[in-house]
């Protein structure tokens, strides 16, 4: 599913509020009244939860319920209207996901714990905006409504403007539009473990650098640990041992579980398999126990996904399994 939407103008690359968009908005709108919009932090890419950037896109907000009913990732191309009225293509987000109310609440709680909400409020005050509007349902009900992985962001060159015959020239609203014309999507050339369950409100891990586990990941990890402990009485069930999401050690086997909370099972497989192979290679196994690699996702495999996984098992002889842990 591919869509296109307008985002409010920001000369700082959507990393912090600038107050500029307020002059472009109609009188009485959120941005005009408060001198900022939630999109102003869209690409504040150091604020990441387990590889996910949780953010806000106005157009997604108006279509969020419909997107949640479909329950599939979507691609969206972003454009903005510059002060000179030119429409500029900004970026394309691949496999973005709309947040449910529960997901949004957990993500906001994680933002608050990390101090990011306080940082947003301070930056609003610095430009003379109304910081009290953040999180106030009287102004706006959603602070976050979408998430995407940083590697799935394709930024367009700064000079990528719409031509006079491009359909987006006549599109003014902040809503998701269907892509129905080639000109609406410009090409881009591209650029020791713990037996205790995680704290779902704020869980942190260390890999190359500090990484915050996403709320969805933490909830799946806690559920999986409970299930595995019940299924394997007497076995060692630990999390984050050698960065492995969950490790189960039985009398004759070592089972390594890698969790990915993406909606698309094919994406889950792609993201998890490399990590599992590396963990299995590094894993100390002095007794030569059988190693099983288990990919954990939110949704059941489709027929195509199952065929792909079976191909990896048969043709490449990888000891892979797939397990569903729904939220």
Describe this structure in words.
With 327 residues, this protein is of the alpha+beta class. The protein folds into two domains: 2-184, no CATH class; 203-324, Trna Endonuclease, Chain: A, domain 1 (3-Layer(aba) Sandwich). It is 28% helix and 24% strand. The protein is built from seven helices and 14 strands. The strands form three sheets. Strands 1, 2, 3, 4, 5, 6 and 7 form a seven-stranded mixed β-sheet that branches. The longest helix is centred in the C-terminal third of the chain and has 18 residues, at 265-282. It is elongated.
What secondary-structure arrangement, pairings included, does this model have?
Elements: E1 2-6, H1 30-34, E2 52-55, H2 58-70, E3 74-81, E4 87-98, H3 101-114, H4 116-126, E5 146-149, E6 153-155, E7 177-178, E8 203-206, E9 210-213, H5 215-231, E10 236-241, E11 244-249, E12 253-259, H6 265-282, E13 290-297, H7 303-315, E14 320-324
Parallel strand pairs: 1-3, 12-13, 13-14
Antiparallel strand pairs: 1-7, 2-5, 3-4, 4-5, 4-6, 8-9, 10-11, 11-12
Highlighted features:
5-stranded mixed beta sheet; 7 helices; single chain; Trna Endonuclease, Chain: A, domain 1; 327 residues; 24% strand; alpha+beta; 2 domains; 14 strands; 7-stranded mixed beta sheet
Series of secondary-structure elements, N-terminal to C-terminal:
EHEHEEHHEEEEEHEEEHEHE
Query: How many strand units?
Result: 14
Q: How can the largest sheet be summarized?
A: 7 strands, mixed
- Mean pLDDT equals 89
The Rg value, from CA coordinates, equals 22 Å
Compute the number of helices. Answer: 7
Q: What is the 3D form?
A: elongated
Low-pLDDT stretches are: 201-211
Give the DSSP E fraction (strand runs of 2 or more residues).
15-25%
The proportion of residues forming helix, as a percent range, comes to 25-40%
Number of domains: 2
Distance from N terminus to C terminus (CA atoms, Å) equals 23 Å
Structural class: alpha+beta
């Amino acid at each position: 599913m591919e869509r296109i939407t307008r985002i409010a103008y920001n000369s700082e690359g959507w990393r912090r509020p600038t107050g500029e968009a307020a002059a472009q908005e109609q009188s009485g709108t959120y941005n005009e009244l408060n001198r900022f919009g939630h999109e102003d932090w869209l690409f504040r890419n150091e604020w990441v939860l387990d590889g996910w950037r949780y953010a806000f896109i106005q157009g997604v907000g108006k279509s969020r319920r419909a997107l949640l009913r479909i329950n599939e990732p979507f691609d969206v191309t972003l454009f903005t209207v510059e002060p000179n009225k030119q429409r500029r293509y900004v970026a394309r987000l691949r496999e973005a996901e709309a947040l449910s109310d529960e997901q949004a609440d957990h993500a906001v709680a994680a933002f608050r714990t990390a101090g990011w909400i306080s940082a947003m409020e301070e930056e609003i005050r610095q430009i003379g905006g109304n910081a009290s509007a953040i999180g106030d349902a009287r102004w706006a009900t959603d602070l976050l409504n979408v998430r995407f992985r940083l590697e799935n962001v394709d930024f367009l060159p700064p000079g990528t403007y719409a031509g006079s015959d491009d359909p987006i020239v006549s599109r003014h609203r902040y809503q998701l539009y269907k892509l129905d014309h080639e000109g609406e999507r410009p090409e881009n050339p591209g650029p020791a473990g713990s037996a205790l369950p995680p704290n779902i409100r704020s869980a942190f891990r260390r890999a190359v650098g500090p990484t915050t586990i996403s709320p969805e990941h933490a909830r799946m990890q806690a559920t999986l640990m409970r299930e595995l402990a019940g299924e394997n009485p007497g076995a060692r069930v630990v999390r984050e041992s050698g960065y492995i999401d969950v490790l189960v050690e039985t009398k004759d086997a070592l089972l390594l579980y890698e969790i990915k909370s993406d909606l698309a099972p094919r994406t889950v497989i792609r993201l998890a398999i490399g990590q599992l192979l590396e963990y299995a290679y590094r894993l100390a196994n002095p007794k030569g126990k059988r190693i099983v690699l288990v990919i954990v996702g939110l949704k059941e495999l489709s027929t195509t996904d199952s065929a792909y996984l079976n191909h990896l098992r048969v043709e490449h002889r990888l000891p892979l399994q797939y397990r569903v842990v729904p939220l």
